[in-house]
Write a structure and sequence with these properties.
Strand order of the largest sheet: 3-4-5-2-1-6-7-8-9
Number of helices: 20
CATH architecture of the largest domain: 3-Layer(aba) Sandwich
Strand content: 15-25%
CATH topology of the largest domain: Rossmann fold
CATH class of the largest domain: Alpha Beta
Structural class: alpha/beta
Length: about 475
């Protein structure tokens, strides 16, 4: 089976969110299961060709509504997976950042969808390789299933099945009808799009024309079928519920491994974390300029500082916790100006036990996972999330809201001897709920150290590898191919 992942980002080449982690690691797991999985991305100008040994493969010409695009194809192999990068003037090749502004990103990703069609044809003609599955990801590549359907009169396109993965329903590529017209894209006349006035919404187009649909956790697959989480597309999605899979994301357990991670000061495993992990806490405290004390309760955050991540709930709760208890707080990330300002104010108010690094540094992120006692992730919504998985992998217990993939991955502490539980879970979107759960976690840490260690061990033993999820994707691919046949 040949599978081509088509995406706007993939780690380690270009990353903003969780999609990059999925597209950067799932194909390798599929290849281990004998699937010929490959990835095609925009050839952003900021990608370091020398670092990743990216070389030119071929150039092809792509006729457009106006003019012809000369598309340069570059390639490399990363973690056994062939990656391809498409550069073409004026959209791809000179970027300094991955995403820019709506009225530039919309036409350039529409263009990317079009040149991907040419890329697939060229790969077939030049190398005899053509996908059985075109696996598109979010709105950025959501036009491909429609373009495939438009070419169904040709045998190879009629046999090509398309699969959409929804990583975040809140971002849709909407109101792009003018750019679709300018790009020469035919009218989208699917009745479910027409009657809901969604013919200019790229996520909706993908929902209507893809053969199968997936999203990144079972809970999120249910949530997006309802108005509070469907962002206007819940009605359309409910027409496709028989084709919808909720498949939990995994993580690259070879890469994210506290026993080998080069960015942490002391390596440890589930067998010796009780003795060795504390060295990472001391290092984190010292490097952040905090008092080095083993008994201080250290809360960590690594996230995009945006509303979705619940920082508007977390900051007021942490302010009160820091005022009342022996607690340290370390936050890493960048995002919305109001949230960054609130974090700066928190640090000014509690300068002796709070550090907020308003940038992103992968090494510091790993040190927070390996050194904090509690990892705070109070998201308003979370399709899957990887932060809670990484924190558990590194022995930090997560505190999360009961939503999406957080609900699927974090079992709540039973409040007693930890016969079950690997973290702390709250439901209501209120800072008071965050505060009360933080107090619960603090008291557990202080008063029940053996219970805490029992949960740490259970959390570190959780299998968040891609193995199980890869088998579910293969099952979905086979259904898509059968449906197409």
């Amino acid at each position: 089976m040949n599978v081509l992942f088509i995406a706007a980002e993939a780690a380690p080449f270009a990353k903003v969110g969780g999609m990059a982690d999925v597209v950067g690691s799932l194909p390798a797991a599929l290849r281990e299961a004998s699937v010929d999985a490959r990835v095609v991305l925009p050839g952003y100008g900021f990608i370091n060709h020398d670092k990743y040994k990216i070389t030119h493969l071929f150039t092809y010409s792509m006729p457009l509504r106006v003019g012809v695009a000369d598309v340069k194809v570059y390639t490399t192999v990363h973690d056994s997976v062939p990656f391809y990068f498409l550069q073409a003037h004026p959209y791809f090749g000179n970027e300094k950042t991955l995403y820019t502004v709506w009225d530039w990103d919309s036409p350039r990703f529409i263009f990317f969808n079009q040149i991907v069609m040419g890329f697939m044809s060229e790969m077939s003609a030049r190398f005899g390789w053509f996908p059985d599955i075109a696996h598109v990801n979010d709105w950025h590549t959501g036009l491909v299933p429609f373009l495939v359907a438009q070419n169904r009169a040709e045998k190879k396109w009629n046999k090509l099945a398309s699969v959409l993965s929804i990583h975040n329903m809140a971002y849709q590529g909407d109101h792009v009808g003018g750019w679709l017209f300018e790009a020469g894209v035919h009218g989208r006349h699917h009745p479910d799009l027409v009657y809901q006035n969604l013919t200019d919404n790229l996520m909706a187009i993908a929902l209507a024309y893809s053969d199968m649909l997936s999203t990144v956790s079972p809970r999120y697959a249910t949530e997006i079928q309802y108005p509070y989480m469907g962002y206007g597309l819940d009605g359309l999605l409910r027409t496709r519920v028989d084709d919808l899979y909720g498949i939990l994301n995994g993580i690259d357990v070879k890469l994210w491994n506290p026993a080998t991670d080069p960015d942490i000061t002391t390596h440890f495993s589930v067998d010796d974390f009780a003795e060795k992990r504390i060295m990472n806490k001391r290092h984190l405290q010292a490097s952040m300029g905090l008092e080095v004390r083993d008994d201080t309760f250290l809360v960590g955050v690594v996230t995009r500082m945006v509303w979705q991540k619940g920082m508007d709930l977390a900051i007021p709760a942490m302010r009160r916790l820091l005022a009342q208890y022996d607690v340290q707080f370390v936050a890493l990330g960048t995002g919305e100006p109001e949230i960054e300002a609130a974090l700066r104010q928190l640090e000014r108010t509690y300068p002796h036990n709070t550090r907020c690094k308003l940038n992103y540094d992968g090494a510091i992120a790993q040190q927070i996972y390996a050194g904090c006692d509690l990892f705070l992730m109070p998201s308003h919504f979370e399709p899957c999330g990887t932060g809670q998985m990484l924190s558990m992998r590194y022995g930090a217990l997560p505190l999360v809201r009961e939503t999406g993939g957080l609900a699927d991955t974090v079992e709540n502490y039973d409040g007693d001897k930890a016969e079950r539980g690997i973290g702390f879970v709250f439901r209501w979107e209120e800072s008071e709920a965050v505060l009360n759960t933080l107090r619960w976690a603090y008291n557990t840490y202080k008063d029940k150290p053996e219970v805490w260690k029992r949960m740490q061990k259970r959390a570190m033993e959780r299998d968040f590898s891609w193995d199980v999820s890869a088998r579910q994707y293969i099952e979905m691919y086979n259904k898509a191919i059968a449906k197409k046949a």
